[in-house]
């Protein structure tokens, strides 16, 4: 079976993506070691690739054995709710470190494996990566930067298919924290289900070889 590496697969959307790809791919679940990630891997017959995305030398050493990789899904991310005037430099640095530099730091050492498979790289972005929302200053900036990295990768690596997915608000822990910051009442039915977004991503992965989806936008009805 083709191989797929997914970051942030222990819960939420990452878990749903792993579940959606498990029937068709051998899964590599990348992330910090945890009992949750181990449980997901055991249930789906996947392998874990323990790594800290902010430890670039460690990431490079961890993925060195991978000689071919068909799909890389960048899903891991952090968000610190806050308007510009409420934010701190430390929050901006931490957000960029994971959401942008972490994605770069994993992609670069995997480029030979992705080229060998003429593979796909999928970036889970956000509606905030197209139009900033109040209270998501550093997060929106990181997603704009991630969008630019995806565009540059698509331009510079013509053998790869690179897709950015822009989901609207999803029923996850991150969303719960944002609603709590906004002072609203959390109503899951207002948001996209993780499984819905995961199915769209699985459809991108299944795109026939003669087509290349550059961007996908998904919003709640």
Automatic annotation (TrEMBL):
Start and end residues of each Ketoreductase domain: 2-173
Amino-acid biosynthesis keyword on record: no
Pfam families, A to Z: adh_short
Key word Oxidoreductase present: yes
One Gene Ontology molecular-function label: oxidoreductase activity
Keywords: Oxidoreductase
PROSITE patterns found in the cross-reference section: ADH_SHORT
InterPro entries, A to Z: KR_dom (IPR057326), NAD(P)-bd_dom_sf (IPR036291), Sc_DH/Rdtase_CS (IPR020904), SDR_fam (IPR002347)
GO cellular component: membrane
Similarity comment: Belongs to the short-chain dehydrogenases/reductases (SDR) family.
Protein known as: Short-chain dehydrogenase
């Amino acid at each position: 079976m083709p191989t797929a590496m997914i970051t942030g697969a222990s819960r939420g959307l990452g878990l749903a993506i792993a579940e959606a790809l498990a029937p068709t791919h051998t899964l590599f679940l990348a992330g910090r070691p945890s009992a949750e990630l181990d449980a997901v891997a055991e249930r789906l017959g996947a392998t874990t690739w323990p790594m800290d995305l902010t430890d670039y030398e460690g990431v490079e050493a961890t993925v060195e054995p991978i000689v071919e990789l068909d799909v890389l899904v960048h899903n891991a991310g952090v968000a610190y709710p806050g308007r510009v005037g409420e934010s701190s430099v430390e929050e901006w640095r931490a957000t960029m470190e994971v959401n942008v530099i972490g994605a770069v730091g994993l992609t670069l050492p995997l480029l030979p494996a992705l080229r060998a498979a003429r593979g796909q790289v999928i970036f889970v972005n956000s509606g905030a990566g197209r139009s900033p929302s109040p209270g998501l200053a550093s997060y929106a900036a990181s997603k704009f930067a991630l969008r630019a990295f995806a565009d540059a990768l698509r331009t510079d690596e013509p053998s790869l298919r690179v897709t950015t997915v822009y989901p609207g608000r999803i029923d996850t822990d991150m969303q719960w924290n944002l609603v709590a910051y906004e002072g609203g009442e959390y109503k899951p039915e207002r948001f996209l289900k993780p499984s819905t977004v995961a199915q769209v991503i699985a459809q991108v992965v299944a795109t026939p070889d003669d087509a290349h989806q550059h961007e996908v936008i998904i919003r709640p009805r």
